[in-house]
Structure prediction request, 241 residues.
Amino acid sequence: MFKATRQRAGLRAPPERRGGIDRLTVEEELRFLDQAYAQSGRTGLMLQTLLETGARASELVQLRVEDVSFVERVVTIRHGKGGKRREVPIRRELAQLLRLHIGARRAGPLFASRQQGSGPAPYMLTRQRVGQVVCGVARTAGITKRVYPHLLRHTVATRLLTLGMDITDLQCFLGHESIVTTRLYAETTAAALKRSFDRITDPAAHTLIASIRQRQGDEAAVLAAELLARRRAGRVSTAGA
Prediction:
């Protein structure tokens, strides 16, 4: 019935999406954050928080100083999708940066707007403004793909799966009502390829990556894994030429 109605109206269904969920590569992510911090420390920290917490833009703009617990190292998102509340763990490094950003404040927006605006909450950012900032930073960083706040959410979700987070834990982290939505990330081509690479790579590479992770953290370890994968792929390509 709906198909016939569309045909009579001259409408076509949108093309079926193929392939995995889009995301930033590690290199793009580093360029993105470098450019954000180059613009200002506030912009850099805001986008780093958006990226690392996997928060939606609508959730980020509602975060308040009171929502950050430095003792527990969690950010509480009180008004998630569907009005649901969740607690998101944050890295020690991000907690330290947020502590410096907050300073002596005890209340108020975590990231306030510099303009008063006309809404019920003065100096509150809008999700549209966050989207503009994200797009502008990505463009200045020379990233050619379309970058928007939800792409940062895709990026951290894919990385956490790659690092071994259980899918039910990722569901809680992202605040998905249904695990079916979370499984889309598990089916992402990049994540699947990396898991396959981890299974077939040699023990020496595992040892090297584990050492890098211990000394420099997860992000450096993921970057090292990607570089090793590319190096191995290059060797296979050369051998087959």
About this structure: The chain has one domain: 26-200. The radius of gyration is 20 Å.
